[in-house]
Amino acid sequence: MSAHTPSHPSAALDAVANGRVPDSELVAHLESCPECVAYLGSQAKLDLVYAWRGIAAELDAPLPSTGERLLALLGVPQWLARFTLQIPSLRPTWLSCSTVILVLATLVTIRLVPTRALDVPVVLVVVPLLAAFAAAFASARADPAYEIVAATPLSPITALFARLGAVLGANVVLCEVAILIAGNRLTTGHRLRFYSGLSVGRGTLALGWLLPMAAVALVAAIVSARWRPLAGAAVGGGAWLVLVAVTAWISSDPVSSLWGAPAEIAYAGAVLVLAFLLGRSSARGFVLSPNVDFD
Amino acid sequence: MNVVFENLSRSYGSVRALDGIDITIGPGITGLLGPNGAGKTTMLRILATLLPPTSGTARLDGWSTSHDRERVEIRRRLGYLPQDLGLYPRFTVFEFVDYLAMLKELHDPRQRHRRVREALEAVDLQDVAGRKIRTLSGGIRRRVGIAQAIVADPQLLLLDEPTGGLDPEQRVRFRQLVGRLGEHRTVLLSTHLVEDVSAICTSVVVLWHGRVLFQGAPAELRKRAEGLVWSAQEASSDAVASWRTDNGKLRVIGARPGPSATPVEPTLEDGYLLVTSGSPIR
Question: Is it true that domain B3-77+154-216 has CATH number 3.40.50.300?
């Protein structure tokens, strides 16, 4: 644009001539500057194939899903949101099943705990089991496109903890609602007062169920990262059920033994160790299992 | 992009899938040829940074697959089509390739969408861009896999059994596509189909029980069988291989089966069979 004077937006006009969409300022300038319009007309290389490709691409491009929009509101970038949502345990059907199980567990708890037919509230036993399954099916191996995704530059640590965090977050919301309902309906008896105290806003152990849930979920995640999601869910959930059964058998107050302060400290330690182990084993990348078929 | 394997081995328990591989692969299309269990997929998975070697190293332009940071650099330059292609059935074709483009760090939406469109055009899938993957045939799904592999314009393209499940017409189109892709990048193509290698590869590596039996140009492999391929009425007992052809005669690879046998022009398949037979003839 050597013939143009410096008052004309030479660089912007050249960019438009090369395919860039003009901004509003440049459009306004062009409306009042015939010289620039003439210059643009002489420079623009109209490539219909290139132009159409851009239009067709925008027409085919998917709109963000509801989940992606929700995560975007929380500041999660679109690529991470879409990646996070590609796991079985965040699908609406999975979350609906979890809700049904929690409703049933809550109803059983409300019916049976006042009669002292059970030593431990069913809903508190079910919560870590749901988390074990959800975490296992949030692992990389539960992703159908596992092998392709693993070969992308996505940080394995980011990938792992984004998905694990999302499923645990969803489970925390569902479980807290269930426990609040169950806890508020149970107001009599020492054991039940303690149990009510586990729900939000009821004292220092407001989220006492969260740590055992996190520990069990991490066990499931570690196992499923190495073997298969179902194996992870079985080991994590099985370990929790064994712990509950043994405690109920040997302790005179299993609720305090399982969710009291000493137990919570032990769970917190376990969570730290397990999170470290999971992060370390994942840092290498989505390395395939040694048992994978070979050719 | 140069790929260098240095004394690379990989074991699964007591099974040695790769055994002391020492080769260098340069730009162009290289075919990894070998029967099932030869170690082709293991080799590609190590290059795709999905499996660590048991010993030795694999390097791409100096970056080692064994170092964390270097592995990310390799992945930035990599396009990978695995043998078992997992897709999201409820995604549209465009959505799936777009998703992988996002994970390959193409974050600007307009630029990314344009690249997705170009990748779909390259595999002739632009007309099904809006269709759900669950409605597609196996051959079209394979092309979706190729589109995601090339969307970020990789310098190294790893294709594991890419023609599996394709009909003859699709296979011809695929060869044309890979031929174009290989003009400006390094392509490693794993296959057990000699005709794939014969049609498009500029070099070939023959793997057998985890070892490299041959590396060179397809013409060199073909040359190995020169003077050792015959058309005869009967095969000799020490023939490397023999089979009846459509002219009713036997094609025999090995020493001359008899005085009436006439020499015939060897093919790549003859060379491959000779090399993998372990025959002392060559």
Answer: yes
